[in-house]
Design goal:
CATH class: Alpha Beta
CATH architecture: Alpha-Beta Barrel
CATH superfamily: Aldolase class I
Distance between the termini: 54 Å
Number of helices: 13
Largest sheet: 8 strands, parallel, barrel
CATH topology: TIM Barrel
Length: 350
């Protein structure tokens, strides 16, 4: 048995232990909702998770769609506390995002959240604490900076993985301004069995298309569009999805995966094309806004209608972390878009 095979087998055993029902194929980087005073709206967040939970069994909180790069330390801890309560009650799985510009800050952030989880679960052992809290790991990005060398990226990520905690690595060049090379990915995967998941939002998909051995790392695609092409059920390179639009189209994205598994390829393709069209238009509506993440803004606008139904225009527009609210013109255009493509709900989930 080669060392890489041994690592892959131990990684597979870890995934089975963390996910006895199997690793969820669809994950959601949950939106963060705010009240009129700018505080975290715990009731609204919980309602959103309950609405998604029939179709999504894994959540990333906070991801970039959930303002993970903008939240303060206290806001992040409060959000994690809210999420821990919700996922425990619904038997869901939680990845905790620790999105920091450098590895040392990410390592400290992980230990801070781990201390919070230990205190909450009254468990001193990290593995038991995470298990009791239904936390399956921590998500980190490469150190930020377009001039980072691959050696710096590898050493930074290795310093986090050396803690031995279950970890997902997030390829996010839109924010980090760099990408992990296939060679660095392969070395990390063959060295650290606690490197359990990869999320790639680059849209270039270089890691999974490189021909490098993934060594059993569970790979999820974060780039939007063409959903029927990428999963392994369609012969693609990804095990599943971790998509911002799962905040709004969890049922439909789950249906694409189900259709592919059942060899209903044409049905999956048609639904994928409908989703791709509406989502691209929604992102175009959000892209000119000067505040916030465009993916978060687009999903907040769409979620406003899924939460409140066709009467959403009469409800106060969603607030952003910056304190601004989404413009009424964008909300109106988003509602027209959902109606035109047949996705407007007859009533909201709130």
């Amino acid at each position: 048995m080669t060392e890489s095979n041994s690592i892959a087998q131990r990684r597979a055993a870890s995934l089975r232990r963390l996910f006895p029902q199997g690793v969820p194929l669809l994950w959601c980087p949950l939106l963060t909702h705010y009240d009129s005073n700018g505080g975290l709206d715990s009731a609204r967040i919980a309602a959103h998770v309950r609405h998604l939970s029939p179709h999504v069994k894994g959540f990333l909180i906070p991801g970039s769609t959930g303002d993970g790069w903008e939240l303060s330390e206290s806001e992040t801890k409060q959000l994690v506390e809210i999420a821990l309560s919700v996922v425990s009650n619904l038997n869901l799985n939680l990845l905790v995002g620790v999105l920091k510009p450098d590895a040392s800050a990410a390592a400290k952030g992980i230990q801070d959240i781990l201390s919070l989880i230990k205190h909450r679960t009254i468990q001193k052992d990290p593995e038991l604490a995470l298990q009791h809290a239904r936390v399956c790991g921590f998500t980190v990005c490469p150190p930020r900076g377009k001039d980072r060398t691959q050696s710096e990226i590898e050493n930074g990520l290795a310093s986090i993985l050396e803690a031995g905690l279950p970890t997902a690595i997030y390829q996010l060049p839109q924010v980090t301004e760099n990408e992990i090379s296939p060679e660095v990915f392969s070395r990390l995967a063959s060295r650290f069995e606690n490197f359990l998941m990869l999320k790639d939002t680059s849209g270039a998909d270089r890691l999974v298309l490189s021909g490098q051995d993934l060594a059993g790392v569970f790979a999820v695609r974060g780039a939007e569009g063409d959903y029927a092409r990428w999963p392994t059920q369609a012969g693609g390179p990804y095990n599943g999805f971790l998509l911002s639009t799962a905040n709004c189209f969890a049922k439909e994205l789950s249906q694409v995966l189900e259709d592919l598994s059942a060899q209903r390829v044409e049905a999956a393709r048609q639904l994928s094309e409908r989703l791709t069209l509406v989502i691209r238009e929604a992102f175009q509506l959000a892209s000119p806004l000067p505040h916030g993440n465009p993916y978060a803004n687009a999903n907040k606008a769409m979620d406003h209608f899924f939460a409140h139904g066709p009467q959403a225009l009469a409800i106060a527009a969603p607030r952003l972390h910056s304190g601004n609210v989404l413009p009424l013109e964008m909300i109106r255009a988003t509602g027209e878009l959902l109606s035109r493509h047949g996705f407007m709900p007859t009533r909201g989930y709130l």
